[in-house]
Amino acid sequence: MRRLLLPVVMAVAMVGGTTVANAVPAEAGWRPTAVPRSEVVAGKMRSDREGVPAGFSKAEADRAETLEARRDAAPGCQVYWPAPYAVCGAIRDKYNELGGPNSFLSFPKSNELTNPDGYGKRTEFVNGPIYWSPQGGAHPVVNHFFAAWARNGYEAGPLGYPTSDEAVNPDNIGRRQYFEHATIYWKLNEAYAVRGAIRDKWGEAGWETGYLGYPVSDEFATPDGIGRGARFEHGMIYWTAAYGAHPVSGGLLDKWTLSGYERGPYGYPVADQRPRGSSWDQDFQFGTMGFPTDPVAAGVPDPDVESGDTDVDEPEPVTWQDFAADAGLGVSARVTQDKAGSLEPCRSGESCTEEGTATAAPRAARDLPIADGPDTQGRFIPEWCTRDPFDSRWKVERKHACATWSNLAVRVRDTKGAEIGRMEYAVKSGILSSHKSGALQQEFRVEFGNFTGEVGKPTFVYQPTYLGYGSGAYSVDGPASGSPVSPNSVKTFVVTWKQQTKPDNTQWSPGFQITWNLGNLAPNVTASNSGTYRYSGFRCDSTFKMARKYRQGCVVPGSTPTFELTALVPEQTWHVQEAVRSGLPGGAGRPLSRLTDQVKRDINRQMSCPRSGPVYAARQLAGRSCDEYPFASTYQGSALSNGPGRTVHENCHVADLPIATGPTGYSVCMIDDGQNKRSGSLLGAFYRTQRVVDQDDFTLTTTGGAPPAKP
Hey, how many other C-beta atoms are within 10 angstroms of the C-beta on 169? Predict the structure, then answer.
């Protein structure tokens, strides 16, 4: 911080017969020489009586004393011992006003100098200069203010000469200094110049106490040479000759920064920001930017926003039929995963279940009576799950997992350890999930084959465990654990793994297992070892809103879903088909991945389909709107594609882009507006029904496409 200035009183002294004004501080540290000698006399000089302040030699002090006494000190000038320099005219008056050598400037270190422009003057002091001009008068420019002025070319630069001393700002924190064509502001760290239309707009915004705060940069030219800008603590102001000066701040500035500033798809700001409900909008050259989301353009819906065409009001599933219907929606890749479970090692002298020991597989399930439990009609364990009868690995689709363990047999032993019989059986299990609920339903099905020898009174014992959630998080529909079993029959039960309370906008991976064994009520027969079925491949989340509330849902992320485009939207289907054919991703082997960041989606959309300006005007056709591919809601969208824009056919009416091919970039086509709206709704419904969250891959298929008519 600067030293406090001392109050001064004025005295008049006679120097060589010339009357000059001298500043004498009321509490002086420095004072003029009382009776200066005009010639140096050894042992008689002030320097012989007083110590010379640091930074000056005795010779300089003695010369300063002679200048005080002699007429060499020109009229209107003053010398300040021990500095051998004359300070003259208005600069002298300002120096004295500030306190002379007692001020923050300390002693002079030059005579008066003429500036490069040939008419301004300056005198340099230990801690900074005082500059004078006819239009601005005399004013010190020091420390950070001097550095900022120097960066901008001193008086020859765009700021011109100083027109004021430093002043304390209303916040009692910062300081400012006026120049001919600008103001330099300082706050605790560095000083920066603000000028012209940008300064005027900053003033409209409340100066340093407004929402922009202090400047944190000088004014700069934009790379294209068209505009100018300046940074502030909480925003920026950009100016162009065509549109004037406009602030960009907060989330709008973050979004504009991410888009590439004026070089990005929005261009320069053309208006100040304005509220839109809880959002803010601002008009740019090529469209209106909104934060957090752009206003919807041309009626094309954002697939990440709720639409009346989706199933947002459907109730959560309750029965296994509900879950089966939900799991059957859509198309997804069928994937084989790890083994479904394991058997405990056999214990010596006890009954033992072993894999690969059955002499024959049980008869087809349809031929076996349901001895105990609900008949789920094969919805949990479909035909594709049982094609490999001895494969105990999980086979999964997007909302369905199932596994069979068919070649099992129990070697029945009595309490003396002797093998007395044999029970053959298979275990099958299927799990269904829903995009409308965090609950899952699992069928556990045991198909018993032939029993030979003495088997006692066998029972089926089981224990579900919901890993990660604790006990009590499930319910069972079917026979109780420990119920008796008989040969060539089926025992089945359905476990509902209940939805748990989870915060909105979160994801988690539930795990659950069913442990089972064959017990025995006969006192002379031992129970078998245990087997375990376990699965933790589902991913649940609460990131989608349905009926305006966040709803949980679960899928298997390892199974990639497919978005089907059909004759329902023929022009959009055709555009996607042709764009993929031209080399863009989306087909098998080159999936798209969903992007949920609203800001990046808007930038993608604005890059491919600007909403004002010459490109927008040239593309307009009655009844058509702009369609881009890859979709703006993907990481392969236009602004993120790292490639150029193109179109696929002259019927697309996109003359500003070439018809081209290649593996990167994006494609644009003007298609039927109603189909464009419908397609956005269909994509949104696909995201929801398949729980496609951020970065999830998906592929697409196209059937029934038709090109738009020639314009």
Answer: 16
- State in Å, rounded, how far the first CA of the chain is from the last one: 71
Residue type, 602: D
- Mapped onto helix, strand or coil, the DSSP state of residue 151 is helix
Select from 620, 600, 538, 574 the least CA-distant residue to 258.
Answer: 600
Asked whether 353 and 528 are in contact (CB, 8 A), the reply is yes
Say if CB 511 and CB 536 are below 8 A apart. yes
Question: What digits encode the pLDDT tens for the residues 155-180?
Answer: 999 999 999 999 999 999 999 999 99
Buried b (16+ CB within 10 A) or exposed e, 288-306: bbbbebbeebeebbbbbeb
Q: What share of the chain is helix, strand, coil (3-state, %, to 5)?
A: 20, 35, 45
Element (H, E) at 428: strand 419-434
Q: Which two tokens stand for residue 602?
A: 């808007």
CA torsion, ordered 577, 582, 586, 587, to nearest 10 deg: 80
- Bridge partners, 168 (sequence order): 175
Return the residue matching tokens 């199932």: 402
Residues whose CB falls within 8 Å of the CB of residue 544, separated by 6 or more in sequence, listed in order = 435, 550, 551, 553, 687, 688, 691
Q: What is the pLDDT confidence band of residue 313, given thresholds at 50, 70 and 90?
A: low
Give dist(CA 140, CA 175) in Å, integer.
14
CA distance 674 to 654: 19
- Judged by DSSP in three states, 431 sits in strand
Rg of the chain in Å (alpha carbons): 43
Question: pLDDT for 130-145, tens place per residue?
Answer: 999 999 999 999 999 9
Contact residues for 669 (Cβ-Cβ < 8 A; gap 6+)? 571, 575, 626, 627, 629, 647, 648, 649, 652, 653, 654, 708
Tokens of 112: 């008066």
Strand order in the sheet with 128-133: 113-114, 121-125, 128-133, 137-140
Q: What is the mean pLDDT of residues 592-598?
A: 96
pLDDT digits (tens, 9 = 90+) for 331-357: 999 999 999 999 999 999 999 999 876
Q: Please say whether the beta carbons of 593 and 696 come within 8 A.
A: yes
